[in-house]
Amino acid sequence: MELEPEVINAIRQITDRFIRLGEFTPVHEIKSKLGAKRRALEGLAHDRIIQDFGENYAPSLRGVTEFEDDDTQKMCLGYTEIVLKALKRLYGQEGQKDYTREQVTDTVARMMEIPAESEAIRIGMFFATEFSDYSGTWVGIAAPQGVYSIRVMEGILDFDTIRPAWQNELLKRNAAASRGTLAGETAERRGDPADLNSRKEDWDKRPSAAAKSSEKVREAARNRTDVFVVHGHDRGMKETVARFLAKLGLNPIILHEQPDHGRTVIEKFEEHARVSFAIAVFSGDDLGISKEEISRIPSGMTLQQSMHPRARQNVVFEFGYFVGRIGRGNVVAIIESGVETMSDYAGVLYIPFDAEGAWRLKLVKELKAAGLDVDANAAL
Fold it and tell me: How far is the C-alpha of 306 from the C-alpha of 299, rounded, in Å?
């Protein structure tokens, strides 16, 4: 589909706002930005590239798969697949009925044996409503916008994996469009935009727990095998950690091993930092001491003897970068014995790098908690 860059950017803004903030985009806001090109929005809504909910626009899975980058596509499709698998299991247990976000969250947690990410459920449930064979009517919520409950149909039993399912949905839409029935089917399942707006009062009566999910979505870089390894000058620690990650079936990303392609160091770093998990190896490569400590050096002790082992500045910088980018729950620091830690980052997990290798089991636990598929037996 040939669209002007400003219109494509509008589609991406609608998607990005929903993914990052859990918000729909006001119609007047997008139309004001597009000006005379705003008339393209009507066609986008008709073709289900965006969804028109009256006063707001929402993203659609078609818009994601046709106009977003590969990482965003993988994330949205992956989250939708997780939710659909959970709905399939729920149908097998209780049959055709309405299932709430909390029920889906609990089912995903049991399936994956780790706590379910709230943003994964929010995004996955929203896009799951687009599969006409699997879902019926649904009830929306606000703050963040999304789906509170969804009716699961018998067709969910046909679901296996996301991409074939999505292709089948597109084929069904094309066939319906040729018969002129798509608009009717859509209105029957979801109600027209005016009806959705009229249900706002009902949405506000939903259980309060549904409104508490306001976590910020992590960056849309969701290759679940890539793990960035931040390191200093201790080659042994770096290689030990990297080899262990590879043993777990993960792909350790070490910056200096990646091609430059004429980029600056920071450009190269930003490109390869698009991961969902990072490990910082804090080895005692530098020595440091505060001015205040210098004034208290005991008699007979030299300045060098009073200094503390510290990690390289690039390690500290990159560590903080990842905490801000993907969240502290997805960053761990493996610390060499005696190396200073940072008191301001007490909420981040520090794993002691011990000779016995207990750090391996602790790391596996954190990787699993972050949603990475690893085999704990490989740590033994």
Answer: 11
Helix, strand, coil % over all residues of the chain, rounded to 5: 55, 15, 30
In the chain, count H helices and then E strands. 17, 13
Is the CB of residue 62 less than 8 Å from the CB of residue 25?
no
CB crowding 273-309: b at 16 or more within 10 Å, else e:
bbbbbbbbbbbbbbeeeeeeeeeeeeeeeeeeeeeeb
Q: Is residue 185 within 8 Å of residue 44, measured between CB atoms?
A: no
DSSP symbols for 208-253: GGGGG--PPPPPS---TTEEEEE--S-HHHHHHHHHHHHHTT-EEE
Mean pLDDT by 10 residues, the chain (380 residues): 87 93 92 93 93 91 94 92 95 93 91 76 94 84 73 94 93 77 49 42 41 36 76 92 91 88 86 89 87 81 81 90 85 90 64 89 88 72
The whole-angstrom separation of Cα 231 and Cα 272 is 14
First-residue to last-residue Cα distance in the chain: 52
Residues 6+ apart with CB under 8 A from 376: 361, 364, 368
| Residue closest to 372 by CA, chosen among 165, 78, 166 | 78
How does DSSP classify residue 277? -
Q: For the chain, list the domains and their CATH numbers.
A: 1-204 (no CATH), 226-379 (3.40.50.2300)
Which pLDDT score is estimated for 363?
92
Q: How far apart are CA 195 and CA 128, in angstroms?
A: 20
- What amino acid is encoded at 228 in this protein? F
Q: CB within 8 A of 317, min separation 6: which ones?
A: none
CA distance 249 to 297: 48
Q: Which tokens in the block code for residue 151?
A: 């009716």
Write out the two tokens for 345.
């980052």
Classify residue 135 by its DSSP letter.
E
